[in-house]
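Final report, results section. Input specification for complex C-07:
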Amino acid sequence: MTKKIVRKHPLAIRWFHWFNFPVLGIMIWSGLLIYWANDVYKIGFGDRTLLKFFPDSFYKALNVPFRLSEGMAYHFIFMWLFFLNGIAYVLYTIISGEWRSLVPNRRSFKEAWQVLLHDVRIRKTAPPVQGKYNSAQKIAYTAIIIMGIGSVLTGLAIYKPVQLEWLCTLFGGYKMARILHFALTIGYVLFFLIHIIQVLLAGWNNFRAMITGFEVKKINEEPPVDEPEK
Amino acid sequence: MANFFKNLFTRNSGLTTSQVIEKKTVISFFFFFLFMGGAIAGWTWLRRQPSDSGKTSSPIRSVLDVNEKIFDGLLSDKHLAKEYPVSQAANPARVNGDLGLKTPFDPVAWKMNVIKASGDTLKLNLDDLKKLPKTEIVFNFKCIEGWSQVTHWGGVRFSAFMKAYGLDEEAAMKYLGLSTPDKQYYVGIDMPSALHPQTLLCYELNGQPLPMNQGYPLRLIIPVKYGVKSLKRIGDMYFSNQRTPDYWSDKKGYDYYSGL
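Structure output:
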């Protein structure tokens, strides 16, 4: 049995990914500082509150209270990095053709369900992976881009609700645009949690690929020839 | 170990696949940690910049000022805050903050002091302003804290007031300044926003004279800004080509522009 180096993630994608990681972290943190000043959202029905965003202990633990101006300042600086990096990523995937391995197709939705059943151990086999990502990944990685676009647009709508009144109206008005902007952020946090669990489960070879760009495949056949080095 | 360093300087063609994997992995992780270290260093640098009086450091201020330049381009007299039917206005309107209203105040003696470019002061009372055409607006008032409320205001357009009193030289200056009679609260506003057609020198809320806690007898209503700029109880009005003082910007680190 021999090892073979297989290229997986281009340098540009690794860069966009790891650049986005701290920037999105700062956007969520500064967003939290802003949200605290008027923390009215909750999940519940009627008078019953199931989940309040957020409990005081949570704010205290993260040193959130009374930092609105700081939150706004950082939010309106790092929004540029989040935006430009996101644009660069999308343009890169289009121009390089990487989008082909990312965008789901007609089969993806059915297969993603099978992947999910497999991942929670209900189904024994997962559908075969064609290309770099399985169907659930394709849907997740495309959805997160759509969410990113949503965050930029709802963010713009609540940043300049008078000058961009049409955008604000498109999202159902100022209050609804704020709710959407917040809900998308909760979405990122959930994405992040599942992402981390999946990366841990997938193991070292998969994680290393996001840093080195290559995966190591073990093969039994003829001694392979390394890919030509540049 | 020594072998590994030797491998770093050996061409890949001279190495086994395992050695190439090891070599590439180490190099990639080296750059990865370098990048992350750089990010942490950059963040630490930013956090350690000395703050101005408003708790905000100069690199942050300069980006906010760039944002102002970029988004100021959007500001247009044609972009109006959406107006609502009077029936949708909140009654009573939310009261938020009493800065500048805490000092004992004599409503009968009140006059607005308009300090002209020449240094002369124009003293006006409420009747003077009520002689000018009245404009009403029902719009979604937006607080910088994040809440918003549809409210119904009445008064005289700031631009119409400037014209009526021949304050053309002042209107050509870059900034408007307002302060409460006790000088405890003050705002600075760029002139294009002040002259926006929806900016009012406001003396009515829900068709009634302003309540004391809403800034009786006269306040500013400026829909193209967060509520912090809609100063309650105007005492002095002044003009400058430099930024006029602004409580939330100078003392609390908020963006000076705060435009919507």
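The CA atoms of residues 112 and 137 of chain A lie 8 Å apart. The mean pLDDT of chain A is 90. This concludes the modelling results for the funded period.
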